[in-house]
Design goal:
The chain has 465 residues and is mostly helical. It has helices spanning 19-25, 30-43, 52-60, 68-77, 91-94, 128-136, 139-145, 168-188, 194-210, 215-238, 242-259, 262-278, 282-296, 302-318, 322-336, 353-366, 370-383, 389-405, 409-422, 429-442, 451-462. The protein folds into 4 domains: 9-93, no CATH class; 167-259, no CATH class; 261-351, Alpha Horseshoe (Serine Threonine Protein Phosphatase 5, Tetratricopeptide repeat), CATH 1.25.40; 384-465.
Length: 465
């Protein structure tokens, strides 16, 4: 990867922090407040990809005025107030301004910039075109077609070399692509998204090769490209393309080490540990999780260290080391109890009590403790935020399998039916593989209540149309 630093021009005037919005957040962490924003959006029929990073950008003043979707959500959350009451600039003062970052003046769209695709206003917000695609479309097909923050058509197969050096707008578009993929995966699962996400990833590394004009922008591009590689790797991982996933995670790790980014390194090792566990390499899972913890320790995020302890616990469970697993689980729970902090990475917005319980369920399942595994899986499904549709399906599939293997076929069939109800919206090979295993376990119990109906419906789903 090419060096991306040259002498920078005169610095821009720094943005003014939005202290009003920070006060409204109160004692909630950015991730918790972002979850409240998403809940408020659902109440009024909006859909926004709000996360901790977005809240930070608002509070820092980087987002001077939100787009119309966020405006409606914020005014719903704080009735009787105007945007200026919430600390934002009047829309008339920012509307239509073009980004002039890194000394660039944007004119005609370049190879990564097309109207309504690459975000070019100062707040880098998602365009109304993308928002309408989410509001009017349905399922993973429309979702995949919305992967356009880098200005690439869904059918793109090659990425031309940029004709200009990338700037802050490109870094912003790259960061938005990562958020978009994560949001779509949370709702729809990986199967319909993986191949569409490869084009933005190729574009990201083309931007790195082109070289940025400022070190700060170069750092954002490296971090964004690495996070995008991990996101695409996860889509491959969840859809059963394990060799592809391993390659993408390795690419992210190389990017992290090239740029000296311990947060990205910890994330890459975290996902590598998860992949190793899923592909029958538990000792590698333990070592990768421990490497992730070494990288993450200076970052000061107890929640991140909690998740990495869970990754280690999964490896110990795969090795049938009950004591090692229990110790790692206890460490994960103690770290989680310390609460969220501003040091928590943006990508960890999925990690709450539901995920903690779900990962613990998987550990007990690997150790053959079916009653305990079922208890934690049930808790995970009950606690999960409705935004994470894919995880609800995953936890419920875990519950069905644990109940089946624990000798409770009727309850297993009922849980399996709930998963089948979600498969019109969620496309995840992982979930489908788990249901297939549950169906095989339930075959000898056809006469139990509900089992025959589940098996028939599952078999119909598996048949080609």
């Amino acid at each position: 990867m090419a060096s991306s630093t040259v002498t920078s021009p005169q610095p821009e005037r720094p943005p003014q922090p939005n202290l009003v919005f920070r006060e409204l957040r109160g004692q909630r962490s950015p991730a918790e407040f972002a979850a409240a924003v998403r809940r408020a959006a659902r109440e009024i029929g909006e859909r926004v990809s709000c996360d901790a990073r977005y809240i930070g950008r608002v509070e820092s003043g980087e987002i001077r005025c939100p787009n119309y979707a966020y405006e409606r959500v914020f005014l719903h959350m704080f009735p009787g107030r105007t945007l200026t009451d919430l600390g934002f600039a009047p829309r008339s003062s920012v509307r239509g301004r073009r980004t002039r970052a890194d000394g660039e003046t944007h004119g005609a769209p370049g190879p990564y910039e097309t109207p309504n695709q690459l975000i070019t206003h100062d707040n880098y917000e998602e365009s109304d075109v993308l928002r309408r695609a989410f509001m009017t479309g349905g399922g993973a097909t429309v979702a995949a077609a919305s992967l356009g923050p880098l200005g690439l058509a869904p059918q793109a197969v090659a990425v031309p070399r940029p004709v200009r050096r990338p700037g802050a707008s490109d870094a912003g578009a790259l960061e938005e692509a990562v958020r978009r993929i994560r949001l779509l995966d949370d709702r729809h699962g990986a199967d319909g998204l993986y191949r569409r996400a490869a084009a933005p990833l190729r574009a990201a590394y083309a931007l790195l090769d082109a070289g940025a004009t400022r070190q700060a922008t170069a750092d954002r591009l490296y971090s964004g490209a690495g996070e995008l590689a991990i996101s695409v790797g996860w889509l491959a991982h969840d859809s059963g393309r394990f060799d592809d996933a391993r390659s993408h995670y390795a690419e992210a790790l190389a990017t992290a080490r090239t740029n000296g980014d311990p947060g990205l390194e910890a994330h890459a090792f975290c996902n590598t540990a998860f992949l190793a566990r899923d592909t029958g390499r538990p000792r590698e899972a333990v070592r990768a999780a421990q490497a992730a913890q070494r990288a993450a320790r200076p970052l000061g995020s107890a929640r991140l260290m909690s998740l990495l302890a869970l990754r280690e616990a999964g490896g110990w469970a795969g090795l049938a080391d009950r004591a090692g697993c229990a110790q790692a689980l206890a460490r994960a729970q103690a770290l989680y109890a310390r609460g969220p902090s501003d040091a928590d990475p943006e990508w960890m917005t999925f990690y709450g009590e539901a995920e903690l319980a779900g990962l613990e369920a998987q550990c007990w399942s690997a150790l053959g403790d079916w009653p305990r595994a079922a208890r934690y899986a049930r808790r995970a499904a009950e606690l999960q935020d409705p935004h994470f549709t894919r995880n609800i399906a995953l936890y419920t599939a875990e519950l069905a399998d644990d109940l089946a293997r624990g000798g409770r076929p009727d309850e297993a069939a009922a849980a399996g039916m709930r998963v089948l109800d979600l498969l019109d919206e969620v496309q995840s090979s992982r979930v489908q593989r788990m249901l297939g295993g549950t169906a095989r376990v339930l075959l000898p119990h056809r006469r139990a209540s509900g089992v025959s109906a589940f098996l028939e419906r599952h078999a119909a789903l598996a048949r080609p149309a």
